[in-house]
Structure formats: C-alpha cells, structure tokens
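A brief tutorial aside. Many learners find it easier to grasp structure tokens once they have seen a single protein encoded end to end. The record that follows does exactly this for Kelch-type beta propeller. Read the sequence first, then the structure, and try to relate runs of similar tokens to stretches of the chain.
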Amino acid sequence: MTRYASASARSDGLLLLCRGRDANSVPLASAYGLAKHREGRREWAIAPGVSPSPRYQHAAVFVNARLHVSGGALGGGRMVEDSSSVAVLDTAAGVWCDTKSVVTSPRTGRYSADAAGGDAAVELTRRCRHAAAAVGDLIFIYGGLRGGKI
C-alpha cells in the first residue's frame, strides 16, 4: 500500500505515478507510468532510473515531456533537502535530469539556470502538502507547509 503519492498526466495521455510512502512510513523513490499501447491496451511499467530523492506529500506536474516533482517529506518531521527539493524526469530521454543548475526564481516563479535568488529561490520548493499546476512552461506552486521542519 502506498500513501501520499502524486500523479500527473502528460499531454499524450501517459500517466506517471510517483510513489509516496509505504505501510511502514518509509519514503519511496520509484515512479510508474501507465501507458496506452497502439492496440489500446494499457500497462503499468516502472519509470527509468530512480528519483534522486525518496519523498512523500510532494507535488508532480508535467511541462511538455518533463515531469517536475517538487518538495516532499522524508518522515520524522523532516523535509526533502534543498539540493534535491526538485526532481525532473525527462520522459522523452528516459532519464532523471541533473537539477543542480536549476532553481526556482522567487521573482518569476520559473525554473531557470540563471534565476536570481540562490538559497531563497530553492527554499520556495522545499515544502510538503502543497499543490502544483503547469500553465504553458510555467509551474505554479501553492500552499503547503514550508521550512526545515514539518
């Protein structure tokens, strides 16, 4: 049984489920895709690789072929670390992307390699129990609990 998972659908109908925590409250890092085959049959398959950080109570949203997973909890009142608060799965290439150069700008709300804001920008995605939505290439994150402790 999985709790506190997230799911997001790509524009072509691929559904990606990012695992939450198991029955023993252990955060999980795996993701599964529900794809539709040409003949109409649907099938679950594990997503390639392993997410950079296990988490639950996170949010996930697609922008084009990239799934952006933000925030989340680790258990014991701890949040996902700043350096891994955003994980990005490029479903076209089948790899989890290096997000060390990707931050969230507090001024524009965009993921950007050149966004100003440093630690304050990354802190915006370090939260749990929040909502995320994509409009075009913009990701909006709203609500949730923020800070180093839940």
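Self-check: The chain has one domain: 6-146. If you spotted this yourself, you are ready for the next section.
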